[in-house]
């Protein structure tokens, strides 16, 4: 958990959920920065706060100092030579070969211009970390295929342990909860492809407003400029930072979630929308087919007719979604219990001697 930020999203959320399973079912210690709370009775191995992803530096010098500290930490991790280390992220250590790392996606290798530092890491560092690992965990079959394509690794060493979403306590939307807006969640990078939604505004803007959560950074600026150019200011609402309770309400009230990514390692927001009974309209890419099965509307990017058909389906498919077998099948497949069993099977297949640590 050494790289998990104070307010985790995406990769950090996955790490947190897997960690919850591990501390309940295995005798372990957790490498964690000071800002992460751990359950009572779990031993914390202290990690400098600078190691966490997203740690903001006050100056260029402080930023470089944080990078140096992070590199030093992973060159010589704070554990013994006989300890086994599991990382729920791609951040592994160079002072052990008794570890498992987790690769969430290889998007940086597809879009190096958008992820220069990550691209360098995956090209030069990741192959060496894989060579120093007992196994590699990935979050989808799609990412598994990518890992086998880009890296020299035995297929028998690569295991799928997907994202999970705990539906316990989640309120499912009722018909009267719905409002006339479309929701976009997580759109801070170009592969999220928000332009695809704006380009077909003529198909939705007469009926719906578009609410965009998380449009930050240079890509957020680009999307705002595109909205101005298309004169959609009164049809698009930007919500850069949203509290968890407010996001839950947005998911339930939305007529549909739009998720037109060109590539994903898994894609959690559509699953989060499904849990609330909200229809996901997603790009027709392999990982979305894998994760969402028949519980989403799939759109071929660049096909206006496909978008028109998707928007027309909101009324009928959206209303029927909450009680559908397709939705329940997806939620069962990615429940905490199901993914926990997948994790256990993968871990004990890769490192059988860890059976002695099971609680």
From TrEMBL:
Any one GO biological process: lipopolysaccharide biosynthetic process
Annotated GO MF terms: glycosyltransferase activity
Domain Glycosyltransferase subfamily 4-like N-terminal: 10-167
CDD domains the record matches: GT4_MtfB-like (cd03809)
UniProt domain Glycosyl transferase family: residue ranges: 175-311
Alphabetic keyword roster: Transferase
Keyword Transferase: yes
KW Nucleus (keyword) present: no
InterPro entries (UniProt xref): Glyco_trans_1, Glyco_trans_4-like_N
Protein name: Glycosyltransferase involved in cell wall biosynthesis
Native source species: Sphingomonas aurantiaca
């Amino acid at each position: 958990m050494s790289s998990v930020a104070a307010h985790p999203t995406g990769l950090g959320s996955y790490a947190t959920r897997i960690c919850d399973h591990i501390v309940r079912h295995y005798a372990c210690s957790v490498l964690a920065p000071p800002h992460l709370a751990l359950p009572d009775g779990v031993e914390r191995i202290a990690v400098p706060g600078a190691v966490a992803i997203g740690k903001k530096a006050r100056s260029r010098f402080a930023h470089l100092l944080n990078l140096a500290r992070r590199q030093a930490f992973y060159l010589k991790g704070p554990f013994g030579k006989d300890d086994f280390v599991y990382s729920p992220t791609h951040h592994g250590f160079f002072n052990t070969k008794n570890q498992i790392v987790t690769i969430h996606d290889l998007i940086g290798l597809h879009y190096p211009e958008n992820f220069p530092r990550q691209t360098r890491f995956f090209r030069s560092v990741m192959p060496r970390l894989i060579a120093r690992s007992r196994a590699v965990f990935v979050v989808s079959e799609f990412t598994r295929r990518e890992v086998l394509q880009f890296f020299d690794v035995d297929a028998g060493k690569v295991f799928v342990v997907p994202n999970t979403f705990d539906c316990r306590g989640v309120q499912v939307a009722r018909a009267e909860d719905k409002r006339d807006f479309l929701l976009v969640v997580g759109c801070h990078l170009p592969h999220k492809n928000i332009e695809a939604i704006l380009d077909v505004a003529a198909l939705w803007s007469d009926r719906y407003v578009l609410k965009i959560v998380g449009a930050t950074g240079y890509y957020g600026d680009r999307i705002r400029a595109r909205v101005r150019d298309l004169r959609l200011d009164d049809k698009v609402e930007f919500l850069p930072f949203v509290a968890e309770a407010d996001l839950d309400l947005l998911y339930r009230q939305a007529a549909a979630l739009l998720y037109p990514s060109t590539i994903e390692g898994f894609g959690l927001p559509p699953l989060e929308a499904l849990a609330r009974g909200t229809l996901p309209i997603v790009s027709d890419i392999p990982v979305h087919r894998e994760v969402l099965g028949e519980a989403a509307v799939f759109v071929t990017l660049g096909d206006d007719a496909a978008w028109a058909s998707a928007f027309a389906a909101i009324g009928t498919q959206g209303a029927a979604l909450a009680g559908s077998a397709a939705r329940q099948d997806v939620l069962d497949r990615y429940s905490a219990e199901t993914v926990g069993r997948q994790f256990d099977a993968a871990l004990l297949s890769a490192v059988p001697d860890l059976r002695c640590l099971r609680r």
